[in-house]
């Protein structure tokens, strides 16, 4: 079971696309964090991962430390340590925090949209001041200290023109594991989509070129589609279990099936219980059934097994329903599959050793 603790709604950034809405201070009491850990540890599935999220979780560093101590206490008898992850905007990654994160074996996720132009388009401090230098400095310190690092970049119409340059910038910075997530709630009109198609084609060219140079990368938006080709589609185990293997906890103690659904903690239709009363299995199962319903409009699509139409949190953001798929999602998914297949076809034909090693269990 993966547990996400949403430590506070507060954040020191003012990102234009933030799905947590208006920022306000509501810190998670330590008792709520402990009850959340107890709920999972005492439940039917072992606790495998604890993630700290927000808002900006490093604003609540003492709470993060205290709750981590409690995770260690409650899982002391586990055969292997629980994986610990913190997702941060990167501006507060100073030596003190990084040293503590390193000693405690944390994986660090840093949100950065890339180049200065990409970052400043959407991710700024209150008042509009640039966050770029502070975030880049945090990433460099994290890499220097040897902590496992993954970057998360949100792609929005306002910064999409920087996508290929952002990719190259992150690689030059030393990042080797990165996610590029589309802001599906943005206004992707025809002109924005046409522009994105061109930028993503160039992005894919850069991906191929980096493999040719011997740089081994993890890039979610292409890797996932290469893997689904090799596997013949997403397996059931690849799909989010929406409250069965993943549980997100708001500062109030409300339970959600995914951290993206917490928002301002004002969505009763996707709440699946509380840390005080436990999981409402009927509410959870209703959401799972809605999310996994067979969609008649997808039945004849040859790409349906490689498409993430089953992602309940994305569907909810785009349509207001965990089970209703937007045509915009279909457009992006088709493009990602098309470009991933193009990259894989080139690299496989060239018998690129890094690509073969990354995606195949055998040598050619």
Short description:
This protein has helices at residues 30-41, 61-74, 95-103, 116-122, 132-144, 163-173, 190-212, 220-231, 281-291, 312-319, 327-349, 353-359; strands at residues 2-6, 49-53, 83-88, 106-111, 149-155, 177-182, 218-219, 246-249, 255-256, 273-274, 278-279. With 364 residues, it is of the alpha/beta class.
Tell me what you see in this structure.
With 364 residues, the chain is α/β, with parallel strands linked by helices. The protein has a domain at 2-238: Alpha-Beta Barrel (TIM Barrel). The chain has helices at residues 30-41, 61-74, 95-103, 116-122, 132-144, 163-173, 190-212, 220-231, 281-291, 312-319, 327-349, 353-359, and strands at 2-6, 49-53, 83-88, 106-111, 149-155, 177-182, 218-219, 246-249, 255-256, 273-274, 278-279. The strands form two sheets. Strands 7-6-5-4-3-2-1-8-9 form a nine-stranded mixed sheet. The chain has a two-stranded antiparallel ribbon with strand order 10-11. Helix 1 runs parallel beside helix 2 (61-74), helix 7 runs parallel beside helix 11 (327-349) and helix 8 packs across helix 11 (327-349). The longest helix is centred in the middle third of the chain and has 23 residues, at 190-212.
Task: Write the topology of this structure.
Elements lengths: L1 E5 L23 H12 L7 E5 L7 H14 L8 E6 L6 H9 L2 E6 L4 H7 L9 H13 L4 E7 L7 H11 L3 E6 L7 H23 L5 E2 H12 L14 E4 L5 E2 L16 E2 L3 E2 L1 H11 L20 H8 L7 H23 L3 H7 L5
Helix pairs in contact: 1-2, 6-7, 7-11, 8-11
